[in-house]
Specification:
Structural class of chain A: mainly alpha
Largest sheet of chain C: 7 strands, mixed
Structural class of chain C: alpha/beta
Number of helices of chain A: 11
Distance between the termini of chain C: 22 Å
Shape of chain A: globular
Helix content of chain A: over 70%
Helix content of chain C: 25-40%
Strand content of chain C: 15-25%
Number of strands of chain A: 0
Shape of chain C: globular
Radius of gyration of chain C: 18 Å
Number of strands of chain C: 11
Order of helices and strands of chain C: EEEEHEEHEHHHHEHEHEEHH
Chains: A mainly alpha (about 280), B mainly alpha (about 280), C alpha/beta (about 260)
Strand order of the largest sheet of chain C: 1-11-10-4-9-8-7
Order of helices and strands of chain A: HHHHHHHHHHH
Largest sheet of chain A: none
Number of helices of chain C: 10
Oligomer: heterotrimer
């Protein structure tokens, strides 16, 4: 009886574990299948076509792709120096009493749902941008900044964790030669934690590119490549969020799935790259 | 200036910049929390819990539909996702181990899926569970949330089970227990707190998801407890109300935001307390 | 109660009534230590775990200041000044009093850059000067032969014993007056240990050396003077041959004969 139960338990857990692989594969498969009509209709030109006109049955993903890349790039540009600064503060500067509360606050920031970042962005940040730059206040710039604030806590936490792996004795050796805190960080901690820091950055990038709610409120969903950074634009997640429910017929839907497939492949690749190239868990 | 003096100056500058970065980070946190609390408390009253949604301008409107819908979606997703996640994590730790290629592949894929765009998962579920049936449904939303939740629970269970010392397992085997009993009665029990923490964090994460619900469970302005129909959720309601031009709806949006954040922060803090209690044992 | 001999040589460092309390501790870890460190000689500190020998060692280059809340009391006189004072320039102090740690701590950079690190910190940029001083340091640390052909290679490619010599080369490149060794061979195999011990004896011509070791035989082999510590007190300081053969204090004798560890 025990033998049977043992085998049953083993198989049950195995099949459920395999299920996760299956689902991932299914996602790739289903996305491809749904996107196929659009792939057949537009081919790779989909990626470089700038015209997105549902009523004309003409769909080009270029503005969405460019919007994704540009908003993410802007967000990373703002977030990276801040995140490294926060990580340095948390791992090397903060007195013991501050380390915990500040560190925990940063981690709690990461737990706030992205939809709330979006609401804050819409009601409180958009007017500021509007006052400073004119226009609607909704657009690439606002989206980039809100996205940066969203990505900051995660990246700061992972970077801090990477820096904390530097052995004390190595840091003390540099201090013992007369180094300042910055000398030690620059010459010992950062080279030692280099892989973890780069990995954290790329991982954050992978998450940022797939971010929907923080950006949907403030991007505008205009399928045009913005001429000014303050112009409304769109990104793949924003287009999906806004248009999925409206899409009424085949090619529109397929084009949206084509977008979803592109997004899935890009973010999967980026995250996998970060993981395998930089964030090895030492499982050898 | 000597080189040494220059180094000391640069050090000071970097220290100031880092502290400023931390201050900026905390400032944004405080800003967001403050407006959340101010707008939320301003908007909260008993009506929220008594009335369901209504067209804008109606006195008697509330969030009852969204709250109940959210609880149902999260609740059922948790009931399905947690056992699946724990069992899969058990396989990884107790049968797969650290060297198995299959186990490591599953771990890697789960890690990646944890960071994958949730809107894509929503699209996937739409294709397999909404389109064929011709309508949105609570079940579709639940499936989407489960897909997001399982990798998180799987990974934390895997990690927590691995922390249980091998000697504990060996002692149970030495008493003649079959493997499944060793796992259920000794190992999982030993990692109980850790697994619970993982569950709390998984639920917190999933509670805040909006994108995967946008075209699966969709939304409903009225109370609906039939999961085979579209159902309201706090997150989607928040999104709709906040982006609407109606002030009373926007107010309800902030109330929803406040309730949701307090819930999620509460779960996170609870998870942390559990983790600390475990460490002090 | 303690027996501290008076040394005939010039003193590199003099410790007067030194107390040390760790942050948050109610009692001091070091109590009223007074001792001389002889110039160009090797002084060893021995004693059971927890006796405070490493705590004392790390006070000389004020390593404790890296961790807030620690409190010094008393004087440590070096080059005519009390280095425990607030206004002491710690960066300068650490270029004059260097330290070698329990495990080899090669920085993640090339062999050349490791040894040149302290020199670059001082502002020495001239390429030929750097090359000369790095070569001299590697020679003085008896590791020039193994490294001259691969100065640009990553330091982590060296063996444990070689890395520790590299760390010694790195420390002596800045030409300090004093070198502090914190159990330098505890992570090394017997042959590497032998090499390091030989090096320490050679180095005393140029620097004054203070070495903490849990290995009594090592202390007997390399040092001129030995100090025995117990529970935060310096129980006895004497010439090494005399301390090991005819210790003045009963406690010292009990430790040396293995009555306690």
């Amino acid at each position: 009886m025990n033998k049977f139960l043992d085998r049953f338990f083993h198989l049950s857990t195995l099949s459920i574990a395999l299920l996760t692989l299956l689902v991932t594969g299914a996602i790739f498969g289903v996305l491809y299948q749904e996107a196929k009509p659009a792939i057949d209709a537009f081919g790779f030109d989909f990626l470089i076509d700038s015209k997105w006109a549902p009523n004309l049955e003409r769909f080009g993903a270029f503005p969405a792709i460019v919007g994704s890349i540009m908003s993410t790039a802007l967000a990373m540009l703002l977030a990276i120096p801040l995140a490294i600064g926060v990580a340095i503060f948390l791992s090397e500067i903060a007195p013991a009493k501050l380390k915990s509360p500040v560190g925990v606050s940063i981690e709690l920031l990461a737990a706030i749902p992205s939809v709330i970042y979006g609401m804050w962005g819409l009601f409180y940040f958009v007017p500021i941008i509007r006052d400073l730059f004119g226009g609607l206040g909704i657009g690439l710039l606002t989206a980039g900044i809100v996205l940066a604030i969203m990505v900051l806590p995660f990246m700061a936490a992972v970077t801090r964790d990477a820096m904390n792996t530097t052995p004390d004795i190595l840091k003390e050796s540099a201090y013992a030669l007369g180094g300042t805190k910055w000398d030690v960080i620059k010459d010992v901690v950062i080279p030692y934690a280099k892989a973890g820091i780069i990995g954290a950055t790329i991982l954050a990038l992978g998450r940022a590119i797939g971010e929907t709610m923080a950006v949907t409120f403030v991007m505008g969903n205009v399928h045009k490549i913005p001429s000014l950074i303050t112009d409304p634009a769109t990104s793949i997640p924003v287009a999906l969020a806004n248009e999925f429910a409206e899409a009424d017929e085949g090619l529109y839907f397929s084009s949206l799935f084509y977008l979803a497939m592109i997004l899935f492949i890009i973010s999967f690749a980026i995250i996998a790259f970060a993981k395998f190239a930089f964030l090895k868990r030492g499982r050898k | 200036m000597t080189h040494v003096e220059k180094r000391i100056l640069i050090n000071k500058i970097v220290m100031i910049l880092s502290s400023l970065s931390a201050a900026v980070g905390i400032a944004f946190l405080l800003w967001i929390l403050t407006i959340l609390v101010i707008n939320g408390i301003d908007a909260i009253n008993w009506n929220i819990f008594i009335f369901e949604g209504a067209p804008p301008g109606y006195e008697e409107s509330g969030l009852k539909h969204a709250l109940i819908g959210q609880v149902m979606l999260i609740g059922v997703a948790t009931l399905i996702g947690v056992p699946l996640g724990i069992l899969a994590g058990t396989y990884l730790s107790e049968y797969g181990g650290l060297k198995s290629k299959l186990a490591n592949t599953i771990r890697d894929i789960s890690d990646i899926m944890m960071s994958a765009p949730s809107i894509v998962i929503g699209s996937f579920v739409y294709a397999i569970f909404v389109a064929p049936f011709g309508h949105f449904s609570g079940w579709a939303g639940i499936i989407a949330l489960t897909i997001i939740m399982v990798p998180i629970i799987l990974r934390t269970t895997d990690d927590m089970l691995q922390l249980v010392p091998t000697t504990l397992r060996e002692a149970a085997f030495a008493l003649g227990a079959p493997k499944y009993k060793v796992i259920l009665q000794v190992v999982i029990r030993g990692a109980k707190t850790g697994i619970l923490t993982g569950v709390l964090l998984g639920v917190a994460r999933v509670s805040g998801e909006t994108a995967p619900l946008l075209f699966t469970s969709f939304n409903d302005n009225f109370l609906n407890t039939d999961l085979s129909e579209p159902i309201a959720s706090l997150t989607v309601t928040m999104f709709n109300y906040a982006t609407s031009p109606y002030e009373d709806w926007q107010k309800l949006g902030w109330a929803a935001a406040f309730i949701l954040s307090m819930f999620i922060l509460g779960l996170n803090i609870l998870g942390r307390l559990l983790l600390m209690k475990r460490k002090s044992k | 109660m303690a027996t501290i001999i008076d040394i005939p040589e010039e003193k590199a460092i003099e410790v007067n009534n030194f107390d040390f309390t760790y942050a948050g501790a109610s009692d001091p870890s070091l109590k009223n230590i007074s001792m001389p460190i002889a110039k160009n000689k090797v002084t060893a500190l021995i004693g059971p775990s927890g006796c405070g020998k490493t705590t004392l060692l790390r006070s000389f280059n004020r390593m404790h200041d890296l961790y807030p809340g620690n409190a010094y009391n008393g004087e440590i006189i070096f080059e005519g000044r009390n280095i425990l004072q607030e206004k002491e320039d710690m960066i300068k102090l650490r270029t004059q009093i260097g330290m070698i740690f329990q495990k080899p701590t090669a920085f993640p950079m090339s062999i050349f850059d490791n040894v040149a690190y302290g020199l670059r910190l001082k502002g020495i940029k001239n390429k030929s000067e750097l090359r000369d001083r790095v070569e001299k340091a590697l020679k003085d640390a008896a590791i020039w032969k193994e490294t001259s052909a691969r100065l640009k290679d990553d330091a982590n490619g060296l063996s444990g014993g070689q890395q520790q010599r590299l760390c010694i080369a790195r420390a002596i490149a800045v030409e300090p007056e004093v070198l502090l060794f914190d159990e330098p061979t505890s992570a090394l195999d017997p042959i590497s240990t032998q090499g390091i011990e030989k090096l320490i004896i050679e180095l005393k011509e140029k620097v004054s050396i203070l070495i903490v070791t849990h290995n009594m035989q090592q202390a007997a082999r390399v040092s001129d003077y030995t100090g025995f510590m117990y529970l935060g007190d310096l129980v006895e300081l004497g010439k090494t041959e005399e301390l090991f053969v005819t210790p003045a204090e009963k406690l010292t004798e009990e430790y040396i004969t293995g009555k306690f560890g």
